[in-house]
Amino acid sequence: MISVNEFKTGLTIEVEGGLYNVLDFQHVKPGKGAAFVRSKLKNLRNGNVVEKTFRAGENVVRAHVENRAVQYLYNSGADYTFMDNETYDQFELNKSQLEWEINFLIENMTVNISSYQGEIIGINIPNSVDLKVIEAEPGIKGSTATGATKAAKLETGFSVQVPLFINEGDVLSIDTREGKYISRA
């Protein structure tokens, strides 16, 4: 158990049977009435963000989420197969569990998987990955004065806006948090 007065950003808690990550919190001491903690919580099972208010001093269950390294092997239709790096056990996750992450997954990539009491709640990919450009429009010469960009399709099928000098076959560093071009790799 942990008091809501000890909330920190990134803390994982269990409230009313749901598993939440604390995104933001604010201690409020009104002039009249009891103090309370206003918080913004992200549901780790479905991704919804909710705002919840707790009385000051109220206790909640602190959830201990395990993270372990796994390797992405391949996908077959809507199922993505991973292998635990320590036990070599293979398991599958459905496409619906990896909506954003599949844009950056390439075969044999090592990622961290988060689990709570044996239930897999998500994967954590690196903040940046290197991906190859498989399709890019040719740049128009002379239109670089305004920092123009063009669309480029990456090996995972994800499209990103890149500078005009990027060509097919180039390997790019992509920010996985926002899905934006960083630089050539």
Automatic annotation (TrEMBL):
An annotated Gene Ontology molecular function: translation elongation factor activity
A Pfam family of this chain: EFP
Boundaries of every Translation elongation factor P/YeiP central domain copy: 67-121
Keyword 4Fe-4S part of the UniProt annotation: no
InterPro entries: Elong-fact-P_C, NA-bd_OB-fold, Rib_uL2_dom2, Transl_elong_fac_P/YeiP, Transl_elong_KOW-like, Transl_elong_P/YeiP_cen, Transl_elong_P/YeiP_CS, Transl_elongation_fac_P
Keywords: Cytoplasm, Elongation factor, Protein biosynthesis
Subcellular localization: Cytoplasm
Domain (Elongation factor P C-terminal) ranges: 129-184
Gene3D superfamilies assigned to the protein according to its UniProt record, in alphabetical order: 2.30.30.30, Nucleic acid-binding proteins
Signal peptide: none
Keyword Acyltransferase applies: no
Annotated pathway: Protein biosynthesis; polypeptide chain elongation
Role played: Involved in peptide bond synthesis. Stimulates efficient translation and peptide-bond synthesis on native or reconstituted 70S ribosomes in vitro. Probably functions indirectly by altering the affinity of the ribosome for aminoacyl-tRNA, thus increasing their reactivity as acceptors for peptidyl transferase.
Family that this chain belongs to: Belongs to the elongation factor P family.
Name this polypeptide is given: Elongation factor P
The encoding gene: efp
